[in-house]
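Lab notebook, page 48
Experiment: co-folding of the full assembly
Goal: obtain a model of how the components sit together before planning crosslinking
Operator: M.T.
Materials (sequences as entered):
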Amino acid sequence: MSPSDLILGIVGLALTVMVFSYLIKDNVFFGIALYLLVGVSAGFATLLIIRSVILPMLIRPLTQAGTQAFYLALVPLVLSVLLIMMFFKRGSRLGRIPLAFLTGVMAAMALMGISRGTLAPQILSIFYWFSPGLVVGSSTIRWWGLVEAIAIFIGVVAVLYFFRERQNKMKLKESKTPVLVGLSKLGQVFLGITFGALFVGILSSALIALISNLSTIVEFFSTLLTG
Amino acid sequence: MTDGLSMQKCPKCGKENLAYMTHCVHCGAALEAMFSFDGEIDLPENTPEEDVATLPFILEEMQSAPQLIEDDTTDKDEDNSEAQETDSDTPEWLKRVRQRAQAEEDASGRLTKSLNTMQERLEDDTKSDADSQYQDWLDDLREKAELKKAKQAERLKPSPKDEQGVPEWLRRIRALHPEDEGGEDLLNPDDEWTEEALEELRKKELGDDYVPLKVLENKEPDEASEDDEDEPDIPDEPDEPEIEHNIPEDDLDLESTNALRQEEEAQAKTPEEPLSEETGFVIVGDVKLNPNEVFDTQITEVSPEKNDEGLPAIAKRALDADREAILQDLVILRGQHEKVALLKTLLSEEGRPLPGKNEEKAQRKDYSRLIIGLAIISILLLSIIFIPRQSSAKAAVSVPQERFSRHLDTIDKDEKVLLVMSYSAASAPELEALAAPVLQHLNNKGLSWQAITLRMDGVWLAESLYQQAKLENHPAPVYIPGGQFAMLDMALNPKSDTEVDAKNAPKEAMPNLEGFDFVLLLTDSSFTVRGWLEQVAPNYRSLNTLAIISQKEAVAIQPYFASGQILAYLTGVGGLKEANLMAGINPNVYTVGLLSMVLLLILGISLRRVRDEQPKTEDGGQA
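Observation: model returned without errors.
Model output:
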């Protein structure tokens, strides 16, 4: 083991123990580790932004006066200056201009993206499950495929109706039809299963990260001991 | 202040007045109010001016009324019964006044009481009731103020002399003090007056407000009135330092706060203690003695033009205005009392911590978190050390993982792969364990691939990934700022090499998506996958998308896999079919850890339920 690996290993071990000390209570060692992470990340991000964004996309084109890149770079320059004006009390209103520009562009982009990339493909995929080619395979009906398609369809409708029922409850309008009430309950079941799967995923990810860190520590000690 | 009170309309002018008003504040006409009997003397309108009840007349009548003279030797109850029995010749209005005063404790009742207490003051009776003392004192101050104003108004314009040469101001004084006419030589109309005597008389009557007549004559009436307005009635008090408080300014300002304090002090004083005039005005208005703010001067103020109306009319007006001002002041006082209570509460609470804030937390040492954490860590450490690593070939492979492995195998050597990285350091162990074997496999096949990162920390995280995949010589990923904006920019504006050179940017910074066949998304966020599928994939239908994603987000991208927008994805520790592509995490340790966490979760839920039910049982036992 090289000296640098040894030092890095000790530092990593110390930081890991400092983070784990949160199990006792929120203490200064946990705070140091946390602030160290935030500080290093912020410093790294600042340098990277200067190197990858400000210099090549703003400063360098502005040095080429008269070119197309120069005039194009004036737009982000003006927007950036307006954004900086938010720091000042008098010019805070001017800072809303770039924010409004960003918000508008982002909303338009999200709207178009969702409709093209999520909504339409997901609706089409639901109907795809009912396609005769998929349900009827080799002159026999694929019952399991049909059940799966119906389950997906009912799940989608039930979840959608659950949200509608929730809105009605907020407006003190409750549905009295037993079928619709049952459909809403079914949607709740689907949502419960989804959230349960999400929770398991989060738990699993945390466990993997913990095992990975502990494995690194064990390997470090085994290397240290065996040479 | 009068929002909550009902109004009544004047039968003469039709304007609105407060419900307890006996006369219209606009035209002076008598109102048919519910409290019209409260001390009001209803006189016919065609009564000659000489017969109109004046203030001295009222006082005289009150003095002469035997019912108003209380017998000190008898109790109150006896007085009440006697008064009801023996008042055969008592005027009806006086009976009602007295009944009202005894029956009611509200504002109108206090008014009638005040009339009674005026009589009591004439008899120099000592009173123990603080409220009645206070009311008497207030009435005295009110009367003084009205007389003072009448004098001031009279002083504004030198009054003309009548046929006998008697000045008008002297006639008014005589009318106001008829009982002194025979007793004092100064008020004898038969005496011959000299200018010096008149000056002396004015000086005596006006007191501090005395201004030599010569000075007044030199002044114009308007000028004189302006001077009076500008002139403060009391010397200006030094500005008090501002006190920081959280009381709304419009509800209770600092001056009214001081006024309320002084009011309380005034109430706490003994009856024998002489009360200053300043203190009295402070109670109902400003700290500074300013009768214009305290009383309704629109009614009580006598303009110079109306001086010829005669003294009885002025006295009646003064009486009505006095009564009205008292009623208004009583309403004000009621509000002031409420504000005093609020102020007392606020002052008592000032400086104290808010409820719930800075409360000492229960010093209950809870070691459950430490115990659970140490237990899991110990179990995992023991598992890592003692449980041998096994091949994942035996583990069940999910459909997405199987498809991922299949696509990975079918990628030709001529096809290009774009690796899009977007994950944080916390997810690095999980994702690197999955991605490192994949990259190693691609590198072994001799594929051409390029890496970009959408996060800033992806630049140095890639070094660890490359190290695990044993790709030391591969160029580091290029950071593409802008997130989904950058994705859309890449999709809509594929950069040619010429454009890239024109911006003096590195060539590898602007990947041309047209040249790639596969995209491998390496991310810990489903939003990145969604962003790619929404912004880029619709514009490049031929671009096949694969994903390596953290397990916590795998559920969120499952619909995209079901719809075919993602060909395959890799997640968790299930691994691929090939043992050599298995992630670096020991799956057995993962299984042990998962079982431990589930057990601890169940145990924790059970203990929590027991702990929650325990207080209920104790409460039930106590009940």
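Interpretation: Chain B touches chain A through 59 residues (CB under 8 Å).
Next step: discuss with group before ordering constructs.
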